[in-house]
Design goal:
The chain has 8 helices and no strands. With 147 residues, it is mostly helical. 66% of the residues lie in helices and 0% in strands.
């Protein structure tokens, strides 16, 4: 199963956007599925459902950090390279989807307001838009990791 499909499958099975993206990468780096899901849980819904930066974006950026980031004994060039990948990821995601902000990506609807959450649900934005954001985030992160 492709990573994009697996990430969407996580999302469809009640894991948030960040968990869905990060877990498909983290498990390939020796982290347990459960550890990945737990570590990325707080970033869903635009970080704790505050609808700031999209959780699919944060999940992908954590994955890029896991793959390319500066560790304890690494040279500072690793940090510089990770920042470059981060900026490129954010540029591509914004170009594809118009924003990096969860609330903007959901037509400025507030998922914490019961009436607006119902509208998000009735419009199928979680299924149509968020699944696309999850898939896009995985695809972009895969492309950048192959560089």
């Amino acid at each position: 199963m492709k990573r994009t499909d697996k990430a969407v499958d996580y999302f469809r099975n009640n894991f948030n956007c960040s968990q869905s993206v990060f877990t498909v990468f983290g498990t390939g780096h020796g982290l347990s599925e459960d550890a990945c899901l737990k570590a990325s849980c707080a970033f869903g819904g635009g970080i704790g459902r505050t609808q700031n930066i999209c959780g699919a974006v944060t999940g992908a950026l954590m994955a890029l950090g896991l793959e390319h980031g500066k560790g304890k004994n690494d040279h500072d060039d690793k940090k510089k390279g990770t920042y470059e990948l981060t900026r490129e990821f954010m540029k591509r995601f914004r170009e594809m989807n118009g924003s990096l902000i969860c609330k903007e990506l959901l037509d400025n609807l507030d998922m914490n307001d019961p009436e607006q959450h119902k509208k998000i649900t009735d419009l199928g934005l979680f299924e149509v838009r968020c699944e696309k954001y999850v898939s896009d985030a995985v695809s972009i992160a895969e492309e950048l990791s192959e560089k």
